């Protein structure tokens, strides 16, 4: 079935976080809200402190008496201001959003909070010098920009990337495995959008480069932030001929096969990464629910 739609909103796209953009430049309001503010502490590996399956937020006053120049403002939850800071000394039970997002009890609010924190902190780590003049930059606008010594202001960057489900118009889908992935783990093909390139041409180019297959009937499905470190995943579906030979050109993909809808449904029943009942008995393992890839595959599989 070639005209399927997403059956649900991808996990990291469900954010209900109020970003309160108007407060970013209001130093007095931010200072006043600091006394009751909550803080996400995140180490350089993207890990946060959890209590069982629940994300732990600290009191902002545990960091400093006033808004810290090292912290970034994420938004508000009612009257509570929310901030994040890089802290490589956090201890206790730690979890990583990318690896454990499927097992954490993430509300739409928490998913938005953490994905924003990761994206912002990752950008700050990589933007310590100005792209315009090479001088050191300092955090400004409550963490939503950095300013160089010469006064040049830069804003957080995101890297657009496409991710595409390739189908035959019927009951088969082409899935691929990167060389760094475990045996049996397959997913959709993806790649970054190049300068001067539209999304549809990117889909065509990336699929051709990675598996040597020509695609047509390219359709947009939906998007998801992917802050690892700062991507935005744009989901597509496209048609291809299963009789066209699969060839690997850029060395990233080592294996790709056409799977039937029944095989995909069996793999989905096995759980994320095959961790559920029956996971060891399937030759196909699929990504967890933290990724838009899972949502796209589930939507296609259910569209029989």
TrEMBL record:
Enzymatic reactions: a 5'-end NAD(+)-phospho-ribonucleoside in mRNA + H2O = a 5'-end phospho-adenosine-phospho-ribonucleoside in mRNA + beta-nicotinamide D-ribonucleotide + 2 H(+)
SUPFAM superfamilies per UniProt: Nudix (SSF55811)
Keyword hit for Nucleotidyltransferase: no
Source superkingdom: Bacteria
Keywords: Hydrolase, Magnesium, Manganese, Metal-binding, NAD
Transmembrane segments: none
Official protein name in the record: NAD(+) diphosphatase
Originating organism: Nocardia uniformis
């Amino acid at each position: 079935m070639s005209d399927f739609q997403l059956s649900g909103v991808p996990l990291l796209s469900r954010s209900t976080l109020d970003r309160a953009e108007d407060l970013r430049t209001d130093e007095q309001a931010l200072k006043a809200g600091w006394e009751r503010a909550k803080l996400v502490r995140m180490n350089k590996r993207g890990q946060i402190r959890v209590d069982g399956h629940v994300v732990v937020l600290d009191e902002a006053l545990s960091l400093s008496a006033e808004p810290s120049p090292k912290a970034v403002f994420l938004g508000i939850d009612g009257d509570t201001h929310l901030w994040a800071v890089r802290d490589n000394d956090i201890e206790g039970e730690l979890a990583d959003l990318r690896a454990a997002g499927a097992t954490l009890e993430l509300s739409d609010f928490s998913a938005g909070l953490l994905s924003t924190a990761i994206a912002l902190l990752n950008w700050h780590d990589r933007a310590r010098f100005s792209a315009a003049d090479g001088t050191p930059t300092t955090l400004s606008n409550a963490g939503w920009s950095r300013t160089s010594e010469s006064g040049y202001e830069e804003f957080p960057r995101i890297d657009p990337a496409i991710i595409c489900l390739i189908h035959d118009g019927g009951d088969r889908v082409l899935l691929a495995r990167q060389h760094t992935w475990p045996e049996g783990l397959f997913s959709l093909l993806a790649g970054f959008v190049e300068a001067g390139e539209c999304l549809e041409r990117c889909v065509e180019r990336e699929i051709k480069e990675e598996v040597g297959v020509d695609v047509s009937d390219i359709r947009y499905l939906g998007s998801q932030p992917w802050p690892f470190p700062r991507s935005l995943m744009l989901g597509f579906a496209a048609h291809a001929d299963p009789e066209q030979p699969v060839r690997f050109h850029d060395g990233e993909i080592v294996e790709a096969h056409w799977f039937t809808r029944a095989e995909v449904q069996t793999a989905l029943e096995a759980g994320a990464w095959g961790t559920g009942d029956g996971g060891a008995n399937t030759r196909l393992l699929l990504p967890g629910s933290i990724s838009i890839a899972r949502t796209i595959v589930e939507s296609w599989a259910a569209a029989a």
